[in-house]
């Protein structure tokens, strides 16, 4: 029996309407699902649309941005049909989010304890004392040995890793079904990064929640995710299980991302690089959006944008190197020498 998706995003388009009638298509027709208890990673360079996708789910898109099309269903309820008042109840309760830099998400004028207690009381029927005790227990769960003292600390008094732990405590305080983690460890040093990601993985298992992990780091994806979506130019260009992605990469963009990773298994005189940069969302090239950077570009790539096709079971790719006739290309085995920027 097919597992019923916890989150089902279909045809999502989030565009930004700029001056001079210019439209930036930051997210442009994205489909994906997240199953209960699963970690799904969205990976891509800055400007690929992954963070705007996560903010669209939370309904946190500000003007001049607007969700113009699609559905975002959480357990069959379309979040795009909800009022702001209804979404306020859903945020933090059913769906929680951890941001890349906790200093922008934590209020600098309130103590850590006040902010966690407020979150608990907003979504649960708890007395102030009961909510305080619950907050202390949450801080202990996320690794604070002196949780009672931390309750009285302000965000600026904590290190980056400690602030991120406090954000995790706040985000899991109401037992969310889905936790969105947007680059949760990017601003931290390598040791603290691993601790934060291990903690999220532990919380997922303990609480039975699903995680949507937004990252640019395929090393993180390999370690923590079950499935992965590779985004480029506001669209999904490859989707499969993490194991299959590393065994049989299909899209040239994904190949470039993998070639840029250091490896202990093969000698490398220098890391690979993808030439050029991600085009701005208001000025994508005609045809395939990766065509201006692709080492395998063909004439047809400049004519029309390819569809996202399932080229083998549970493995989708948006590339003319694959089509309905069954032509396939294994980008990890056959590829041009990377071009350096």
From TrEMBL:
Q: Does the keyword Cell membrane apply?
A: yes
| Sequence intervals crossing the membrane | none
Q: Cite the ABC transporter domain residue spans from the record.
A: 7-258
Q: Which Pfam families match?
A: ABC_tran, oligo_HPY
Give a yes or no for keyword RNA-binding in this entry: no
Tell me which domain of life the UniProt entry assigns to the organism this sequence originates from. Answer: Bacteria
Q: Which GO terms describe its molecular function?
A: ATP binding
Location of this chain's protein in the cell: Cell membrane
Q: How does it sit in the membrane?
A: Peripheral membrane protein
- PROSITE patterns per record: ABC_TRANSPORTER_1, ABC_TRANSPORTER_2
Write out the entry's keywords from A to Z.
Answer: ATP-binding, Cell membrane, Membrane, Nucleotide-binding, Transport
Similarity annotation: Belongs to the ABC transporter superfamily.
The name under which this protein is listed is Oligopeptide/dipeptide ABC transporter ATP-binding protein
